[in-house]
Amino acid sequence: MNDMTQTPEMLIAAMAAKARAASNALTQISDEEKSRGLMLAAQALRDHGDAICRANMQDMENAAERGLSSALLDRLRLDDARIEGTASGVEQVAKLDNPLGEVIDETHRPNGMVMQRVRVPLGVIGIIYESRPNVTADAAALCMRAGNAAILRGGSEAIESNRAIHAAMAEGVSAAGLPTDAIQLVPTTDRAAVGAMLRAAGLIDLIVPRGGKSLVARVQEEARVPVLAHLDGMNTSYVHASANPDMARDLVVNAKMRRTGICGATETVLFDKDFKATKEVIGALIDAGCAVRGDDAIQTIDTRVTAAQDEDWDTEYLDAIITAAQVSGIDEALAHIAAHSSGHTDAIIAEDGAAAERFLNAVDSAIVMWNASTQFADGGEFGLGAEIGISTGRLHARGPVALEGLTTYKWIVRGTGQVRP
Predict the structure, then answer these.
(1) What residues does 307 pair with on adjacent strands?
(2) Are 269 and 322 within 8 A, CB to CB?
(3) DSSP letter at 135?
(4) What is the pLDDT of residue 379?
(5) C-alpha–C-alpha distance, residues 154 and 167, integer Å
(6) What 3-state DSSP class applies to 151?
(7) Which CATH class for the 235-376 domain?
(8) pTM
(9) Using CA atoms, how far apart are residues 190 and 156, in angstroms rounded to an integer?
(10) Which CATH number, 3.60.21.10, 3.10.50.40, 3.40.605.10, 3.90.180.10, labels domain 18-228+388-414?
(11) What is the tens place of the pLDDT at every residue in 227-241?
(12) How many helices (H) and strands (E) does the chain have?
């Protein structure tokens, strides 16, 4: 049957069948061979850097014509440094400790049976993502190293970049004798293909969405396949009364302005009413090019601050905009975070260790930080190599999801002829 008559469901079913066969094949391939394939894939990314940049330039031009925001354009943009960073990330994944076969725990029963829980691959993983073409390489590398096959469906705005990156990855994997069907890229930008992936129960074992609220909402609403959710990064940095003023200034500006378009960017800053340098920190943000929307107290401190509206406290700007409020103490800060946080990353800046420990224990987010920029919410910074996403749920995996998060376990029982009475 030719492509003109192939429905999205047929396309995804065919890709999933190839992926299942590749996943099964990977169970018979040594970890050393998988690592070698990823090292060759990283080199192929470097070798084809010029072609990848040309493809990305085409995507950037198309995206600009479509009126994408500066934050999304920043996520989409590739250059030599970012390609090198992507290649280095693939190499890091190749060098990580292999989680497969790890004995999680072992029990010796009174009847002599030995029971073990052992890490194994999940199987076939579908990754649905927007804007960031480096996800093509990151997700492919992580899935393959953990013994899984990946079906990658990137956004239409990055289609040429994704195709160029995928071609380079496939070249390296093939050179190592590994099955290229383990890292397939959905060839169409038809949104119906996303729906077909979400309904592919029994064909795809896990869906990982990476994108904005509308994408994640659609996935959670329509999916008949288990989902590893990555919600928006409604991240807060709380400046405690005991915070060092210079540290607070540097951390808040970095947490917001280093890269405004990533999910680890701080979107709200809370200042304790007894912190003495709020004006200086607000001024540093504005001087760095950040628009500040504040409550009445913050507007009084700096007249350049505009009034925050109710919806601002729940908005992931992904841009040079931040909301700011003054709180009466840690209890009020905790209450604000509980009401508005998406459970992604929240931070306290404080010299008071007792207050910091209380914050770390009380905030129910996937990542909670003390005296560190929320921009460190990244699998590479956690020593995990690349990441497939940051899970804001509470089941299976939480926070940056890398190799271990892409495995499950099975029970292995060894006996000596026991029968159950």
Answers:
(1) 294
(2) yes
(3) H
(4) 83
(5) 14
(6) strand
(7) alpha beta
(8) 0.84
(9) 8
(10) 3.40.605.10
(11) 987 767 899 999 999
(12) 14, 16
